[in-house]
Amino acid sequence: MDFSYCLSKNVELPVSIRIATLEGSCDRKQWTNSLDDIAEGVNSDFFVTVQLYGDNKPLTVPVRTSYKAFTNHHAWNEWLTLPIKYCDLPSSAQCAITVWDIVGPRKPVPVGGTTLELFGKHFTLRRGKQKLHIWPGKEADGRVNTTTPSKVKLDDDMEKLEKLVKRYDCGDIRPVEWLDKLAFRQIEQIHMKAAERATEMALYVDLPKFDFPVVFGETEYTLPSVASALSNPQQPSNQTNAAIANAMNQPMYTENGNPIQSSNTHPTDNPQNYSLVLDLDIARDNPVEAKHRRLVRSHRNGPLDRDLKPNPKIRDELNNIMSYPPTQTLTTEEKDLVWKFRFYLTRDKRALTKFLKCVVWTDPTEVRQAVDLLPLWVDIDVDDALELLGKEFGNRSVRSYAVNQLRKADDDDLLLYLLQLVQALKFEHLVEKGPQSYDSSLLQFLIDRAIRNPILGNYFHWYLMVECGDKVVGKMYGKVAFQYFTTLLEAPNGYKRRDVLREQGELVLSMSKLSKEVRLMKDVRAKKIEKMRVMLSDPKGMLANIPDLPLPLDPAKTVSRVIPAKSSIFNSNLQPLRLTFVCQDETEYPVIFKNGDDLRQDQLVIQIITLMDKLLRKENLDLKLTPYKVLATGTEHGLVQFIPSKPLAAVLNEHQNSVVEFLKQHHPDDGPDNIMGVDAQVMETYIRSCAGYCVITYLLGVGDRHLDNLLLSPDGHLFHVDFGFILGRDPKPFPPPMKLCKEMIEAMGGANSRHYNKFRQYCYTAFTTLRRNANLILNLFALMVDANIPDIKIEPDKAVYKVQEKFRLDLSEEAAIAYFQSLISESVNALFPQIMETVHKWAQYWRS
Ligand code: 1TT
User: Fold this and answer.
1) 106-112 long-range contacts, Cβ below 8 Å, gap at least 24?
2) Which residues on adjacent β-strands are paired with residue 115?
3) Is the CB of 713 under 6 A from ligand 1?
4) What is the CATH number of the domain that holds 103?
5) Does a structural domain hold residue 248?
6) Which of 160, 387, 413, 648 is an S-S bond match for 707, by CB 3.0 to 4.6 Å?
């Protein structure tokens, strides 16, 4: 494998190191010379000095942490910046770190020291967390043949043992039961010795994490020239490039992911974390536990496992494990059990993700065995394949396997997961193979499908464009976008399709410009609308005459112009535009263009609603949802499909506080089938959509609900808009779990009506149907943890759990329904208080 890397001579950043904590027994008697130095009850003041050395000469003056008085836990958590840059380091650079104690008024005494080589294996700069051995009482010497090395070799016993156990694992050593037992007892004892060593002093430090490994280098390496795959070779022009760059409202990228036009900028201004870490290093496990596992597993290793069949009790146990949600971590015993029966389990499609969770990826023997088992496994579901593309699975064979399983998904299904698959690229090692190809099976797969289907290709492009604007991952996605374009140009119609994407970028840019101009106008709204319509009519402007372009928001629709008279400005803060496009088929397509807002959270919610709608329809349940389209076209602008509708607040205001009156006005029916004078179909739509959004907003924890973001269409479709608060977040206290208001229930005929009962039935069916698909939904959320979604970012590790909680997977289906039933009843009861004086906290929620 060859990785992308960067040379140290190109890193013009000061060397920095974070002093985290000192662990282990630091009995002061060990290093203080005289006992009277230890005044009883007086805390010690520890500080740490860091000095760089190269070839036995100091490279810098010492730099130190602040004094800190500690009682027993020593934690500085302080970043130190050294007066030297990475580019000026010799390959022999060492960091001499000493922990000092100030004993009384006298000079500091070394608690201990350690010398760390900055460049490790293959002359690569060490990065991330480091555990450094502290030599008690010694000052770090920073010398080439240091007496205070940061790494101490395992004892000979341990090393020999490691090798032997490995050979035993591989089946090179024939098992002899009685002898092995004795041997294992001995091994246990050696482990105890190792465990004792764990109590020695160690200093934990962190080194900066760069985008790429930083390799020591003074020689000049020539990078591949700045390519211009985006510009048509027949019409050589930097102009094309610049136009696209402008149109996309972001810099264009070279194959190295470097913005073409911008000067050399540092990835972020945060010195502690320079950029995204594509590291999938699995946390090193406790050596004692690791050995235990190896012993347990090696006992039962070898050809014997192949024919192993579980007895009924173990079968139940395994079955139980297989039904765990994807988030569940397995206990050591469960892992050993799954490992033991891995051959038996290859016929269970649910078992592969569980089995792969049991593999210790730092153990090459286990990795080889696991990878060899992949082709023997029965095909797994696409739902589970998505789990294997998550953060936790860093093995390339596993990820390629997952991609191969994904090939089963047709374009419609792939479209449902595309947003997440683009996110999953963050968890791939994008390894450079040739000058412009990145060897990631997921990326190759996505590019291939995006090229085959222009609709997929449209969304793939726009999802990439948004990520390109990101400070941290932008560069990586720049490379991805570059590769997509390069491959697209080789495809039939490639140039034409590239032009389409470029023109879409221009379209977005003109809307963005228009939006900014509108905001800068110093007029009243009516005047602004008037001026905007004039601007829209300008025949030179793109919006009056669009060259038949697929709408980025909905590429199945080809648009040719905007109708000025049917365009206006919303009366909200950022003054979003309402633009009505005319399609090729003469139908109208109204949209909202928002500038100044990040639409990614809304985009995610709508995508999940679209997916849920598909899952429900597959089970023959059409809940008349309105998954209007949302597309973020950048990190601060985007398009939203406009659905003719009215906020519930306005509906109630204009119709004597009654939803029924509104529906009656649009669809009256006096016939025998009517319900409260409303067309039966309209009422049915209303009830179904109320149920659908009740369940979905509950699952997603949608907050900040009020009568202005609950919309109703004249034909009975109720739907929610504006998803600025999700996963339980809410600006108001005591948010009810179900977002139902009094007027919604009243329109059904009240909480005792036949229609209300029907509504509840729809809720239960929807809940259980989605619950059966919980794994898929949870896996999709798991892939979004590093997406820039505000409400996920708050607590990324808890995001998936917040959704999982709602499913109550701990309950049987029957119990889950009962639970859901009680939530609805409680929420609705709160709206209709028995005693008029007491106002339930949940009812309070709907008051403005
Ligand atoms: C949305 C989506 C939305 C305001 C912000 C919050 C806005 C679906 C979708 C407009 C409409 C496009 N409307 N909103 C809503 N709007 N809709 O996130 F954009 F103005 F800032 C509208 C219906 O179609 C809005 C209505 C009433 N008030 C505000 Cl009908």
Assistant:
1) 106/37, 108/47, 109/31, 109/32, 109/33, 109/37, 110/31, 110/137, 110/138, 110/139, 111/22, 111/26, 111/31, 111/46, 111/136, 111/137, 111/201, 112/26, 112/31, 112/136, 112/137, 112/138, 112/201
2) 96, 149
3) no
4) 2.60.40.150
5) no
6) 648
Could you give the CA distance from residue 628 to residue 621 in angstroms, rounded to a whole number?
Answer: 19
Do 49 and 148 belong to one domain? yes
Residue 126 is predicted with a pLDDT of 93
Q: Which of 722, 723, 725, 726 to mutate to test the pocket of ligand 1 (most atoms within 8 A of CB)?
A: 722
pLDDT at residue 746 in the model: 96
Q: Are residues 361 and 450 in the same domain?
A: yes
Q: Quick one: 402 and 514 in the same domain?
A: no
**Structural domain total, the chain:** 4
Residue bearing the CA closest to ligand 1, atom 27: 647
| CB of residue 579 inside a 6 A radius of ligand 1 | no
Q: How far apart are CA 809 and CA 720, in angstroms?
A: 26
Closest CA to 419 of 607, 179, 624, 691: 607
Buried b (16+ CB within 10 A) or exposed e, 306-326: eeeebeeeeeebbeebbebeb
Q: How many Å lie between the centroid of ligand 1 and the Cα of residue 721?
A: 7
Instruction: Specify the DSSP element, H or E, that contains 20.
Output: strand 14-23
543 lies in the same domain as 651: no
* Closest alpha carbon to 600 in 798, 472, 719, 465: 465
Does any domain span residue 705?
Answer: yes
Q: Is the CB of 707 under 6 A from ligand 1?
A: no
User: How much is the pLDDT for 12?
Assistant: 85
d(CA 816, CA 115): 58
The tokens describing 579, both together, are 């633009």
Mean pLDDT, consecutive 10-residue stretches, the chain (848 aa), reads: 68 90 67 41 73 93 80 81 91 94 77 94 88 93 93 69 68 68 72 67 90 70 30 34 35 44 32 30 54 65 73 96 96 93 96 96 90 96 98 93 97 98 90 63 97 98 95 91 94 94 96 96 96 96 95 98 98 96 96 97 98 98 98 97 98 97 94 83 97 98 97 98 97 93 96 96 98 98 96 96 97 96 93 69 83
Q: CB of 650 closer than 6 A to ligand 1?
A: no
Ligand 1, atom 3: closest residue by C-alpha: 721
DSSP code per residue over 298-347? HHT-SGGGGG----HHHHHHHHHHHTS-TTPPPPHHHHHHHHHTHHHHTT
Domain that holds residue 732: 645-847
**pTM of the full predicted structure?**
0.70
